[in-house]
Amino acid sequence: MVEKPTCEQLKERIKLLEEEASEGKLAKETVLQSEERYRILFNESRDAICITSREGIFLDANQAGLKLFGYTREEMIGKIDVRDLYVNPEERKRFKKEIEKRSALKNFPVKLRRKNGEVMECLLTSTVCRSPGGDITGYQGIIRDITKYSR
Question: CB 3.0–4.6 Å: which of 10, 16, 61, 135 could bond 131 by disulfide?
Answer without folding.
Answer: 135
